[in-house]
Design a protein that fits this description.
By secondary structure, the chain is of the alpha/beta class. About 35% of the residues lie in helices and about 20% in strands. Helix 1 packs across helix 3 and helix 5 runs parallel beside helix 11. Keywords: Carbohydrate metabolism, Glycosyltransferase, Transferase.
Length: about 725
């Protein structure tokens, strides 16, 4: 094996993969060099590869302990210590501090630790010795710290520390959350909500009202699009799956009128009552699509004024006390995110070409530079505004969740965690060692996109994750489990591997992640936050992946359109796994009415997304066959409506057909069944059309009916009626 292959293997670059057609795709040498460089190691020449290989090999031997070790609850701690050879006469002194507990320690002669491996690097001999027998046989679940050092006759020897993570076997389950062991919910894009009092897009106040409606309808869950922080300085960047940070919230979801400081703010209420403001507000409310710049122009000045009122409160005011507690809880991550938002605003307003932080002056690209510290000091008020906005967004989201539960939601919200972040965002700037620069996340070619997909997102560094003892991943889970009863992990295969595409144009390749470590951490945080986990496992799923998710208690994500038998028919309800969440459609697919009428195919034709007429004609033919197959499936279950006298696929869409399809899903054993709001309202337009950016109004569509009209909507009640049998009330 060459040095390049050995280095690539140590870094987790998979040597090949099989595409969706079964073809074996080898990872080229050019791709290996490019992706190794993206990880921060030199690999342009054979000499650089050799040097980088020595660096990686030396790293695991030249420090006594790895940065982290993850084990299962009740298992022994299989830890080893790496030491220079020749320390048999020395003593190893150790101290173990359990999470929230009292430190305990001891010492042992190095010679009494069994040797498990030996090597020589740069003329220095090393030994690896088993250490696990020294530690308690069974640590409690949690995050623990081990420190050790060597005492030798010649003076102090090597020292090191590690984080020991002990995790439960399984995530919290739906059965543990609700007595019936099953639940159903309504999924929506929060921005799409309309109401009598909206600001041109749905926000957390509208979400609270929707959660109350869903609770009264008998739902146990409300599923949400990603609420991740975007770019306040540029409201034209609207993709929820391309965020600045996945740890914080989109502040445009704040309702200014629900901010406590708004009460009694006569000057702000007068500003809103001004005819010019009312005209702008009415225009935003009446728009067919969300006009994000218009919404930002309405909301942000009011939020700034409310922040000024907040700052004038006394330090012992309950709001100030709560804010201080929030900032302490969120820690440095919030400080850096708020600082990034202030810097991004500063440079973007100076020159739109400085949108990406890598185009800022060099000193400002480093969050620890003196120039950044000086900016933070001189713009402290602006930085505090962005931190306060996160505090208020979090408060309003929590209030919405509480109102939903009070109205009858048995579980609450389920949130959505995007697969990665924008490389120009706050997360990439705040922790550059954690996010890869020089490669993007994507997908290899498949039947949906023959050229593959480059999502333009920055992948997490597997090296950075381990070196940080998985701290960023843990914080990410905690942040997205706040105010949530369930968490959907988008493209959950990223726990095992991600498809990286080098920026230099080389072909992409899969990069492995510490799958079992990440699974265990997900289970630990699920239990601690009492949050069910759903894995979006659509697309090319690695062998053994779904069984591993099932063993960890992570629900599979099953979409009616894709659940097919070998002959192309629709699987019967009984064939769905119990450990799953079932849904008719998703935000990336046509809602059921659009599927039945071919609205999505019309869009593809209109936008020229078909490579040729034959592909277009085949899609239309296949859709007709699918309609026929679906009516056959409904017939087998005795669910085909009387208004559909035959199984002919050319019959028009009727609301009772959508109700029958949802009744079909309600018969599955799936622990959760979701109804997308577009399906509940018999809408035919999907929120996002993959493969488009501006050609299709992605992430801008508003619901056809207002919040105040939903509960009495007869069609909505007809479509969701079958769901009520899942959890009898």
């Amino acid at each position: 094996m060459s040095d390049l292959d050995r280095l690539a293997d140590l870094l987790g670059l998979e040597p090949h993969y099989h595409d969706i057609w079964g073809n074996r795709r080898e990872t080229s040498a050019a791709t290996k060099r490019a992706l190794i460089a993206a990880m921060g190691l030199q690999a342009a020449t054979d000499g650089e590869v050799a040097d980088s290989l020595r660096t990686v090999e030396r790293r695991s031997w030249s420090r006594p302990l790895p940065p982290v070790l993850v084990s299962g609850e009740g298992q022994g701690i299989g830890l080893e210590v790496a030491l220079p050879a020749g320390l048999d006469e020395a003593a190893l002194v150790w101290e173990l501090t359990p999470e929230g507990g009292t430190a305990q320690g001891g010492r042992v002669a190095v010679r009494d630790l069994p040797v498990t491996d030996r090597t020589a690097l740069d003329d220095t001999a090393y030994e690896r010795r088993a250490l696990g027998a020294l530690l308690p046989v069974s640590l409690p679940i949690g995050y623990h710290r081990l420190d050790l050092h060597v005492e030798a006759a010649g003076g102090p020897g090597p020292s090191g520390s590690t984080t020991l993570i002990v995790a439960p076997e399984r995530c919290v389950t739906v059965e543990e959350m609700v007595p019936a062991g099953r639940s159903w919910g309504i999924g929506l894009q929060v921005y799409s909500l309309r109401s009598e009092h909206d600001w041109g897009m749905g926000d957390f106040a509208d979400l609270a009202g929707f959660a109350e409606v869903a609770g009264r309808l008998g739902a146990g869950l409300v599923g949400l699009n990603p609420l991740h922080a975007l770019f306040p300085a540029d409201p034209n960047h609207i993709g929820p799956y391309s965020p600045s940070s996945r740890q914080f919230l989109n502040i445009l979801y704040i309702d200014p009128a629900a901010v406590p400081e708004f009460a009694g703010a006569d000057d702000l209420q007068a500003r809103i009552a001004d005819p010019a403001f009312q005209t702008a507000l009415a225009s935003a409310r009446q728009a067919e699509l969300v006009d994000y710049p218009a919404v930002a122009a309405l909301k942000l000045p009011l939020l700034e004024a409310l922040h000024a009122r907040f700052r004038s409160l006394s330090d012992d005011h309950p709001r100030k006390v709560a804010y201080a507690a929030f900032r302490q809880d969120m820690g440095e991550a919030l400080d850096r995110h708020a600082l990034f938002d202030a810097l991004h605003e500063h440079f973007f307003r100076q020159d739109s070409a400085q949108w990406m932080w890598r185009s800022w002056p060099a000193a400002f690209q480093d969050p620890q530079s003196a120039e950044v510290a000086d900016f933070a000091a001189t713009h402290a008020g602006r930085v505090d505004f962005f931190a306060w906005a996160q505090f208020e967004a979090d408060r309003q989201l929590g209030e919405a969740a509480a109102r939903g539960r009070s109205a009858g939601l048995a579980m609450g919200f389920y949130r959505d965690l995007a697969v990665a972040v924008h490389p120009g965002g706050g997360s990439a700037w705040a922790d550059p060692a954690m996010l890869v620069q020089g490669a993007n996340v994507g997908a290899p070619p498949d039947q949906f996109n023959m050229n593959g997909q480059n999502w333009g997102l920055a992948p997490l560094s597997p090296l950075g994750l381990r070196e940080s003892a998985y701290r960023p991943f843990i914080e990410l889970l905690r942040a997205n489990m706040r105010h949530a009863a369930a968490l959907r992990i988008d493209h959950v295969m990223a726990l095992q591997h991600l498809f990286w595409i080098p920026e230099d144009g080389s072909p992409g390749a899969y990069v492995a992640y510490p799958f079992h470590d990440l699974l265990r951490i997900v289970a630990l945080e699920s239990r601690r936050n009492r949050c069910v986990v759903i894995g979006e496992d659509l697309g090319t799923v690695p062998d053994g992946f779904r069984p591993a998710l099932e063993q960890a208690g992570i629900l599979s994500y099953r979409v009616l359109y894709f659940e097919r038998t070998a002959d192309g028919g629709f699987k019967s309800p009984a064939e769905y796994p119990a450990g799953s969440m079932a849904t008719v459609s998703t935000h990336d697919l046509a809602p059921f009415k659009g599927f039945w009428t071919g609205r999505d195919l019309d869009w593809r034709k209109r936008l020229g997304l078909y490579p040729d007429d034959a592909s277009r004609d085949k899609d239309h033919w296949d859709r007709g066959v699918d309609r026929w197959r679906l009516l056959q499936a409904l017939s087998r279950e005795g669910l085909r409506p009387d208004s559909y006298p035959t199984e002919d696929g050319d019959q028009p869409f009727r609301v009772e057909l959508s109700a029958a399809v949802h009744a079909y899903l309600s018969r599955t054993p799936s622990r959760i069944v979701m109804v997308q709001i577009e399906d509940a309202l018999a809408d035919d337009e999907q929120p996002n059309l993959p493969g488009t950016v501006d050609q299709h109004p992605n992430w801008r569509r508003r619901l056809p009916r207002k919040l105040e009209e939903l509960e009495a909507d007869e069609e909505l009640r007809h479509i969701v009626a079958p769901m009520t049998g899942i959890v009898p009330r």
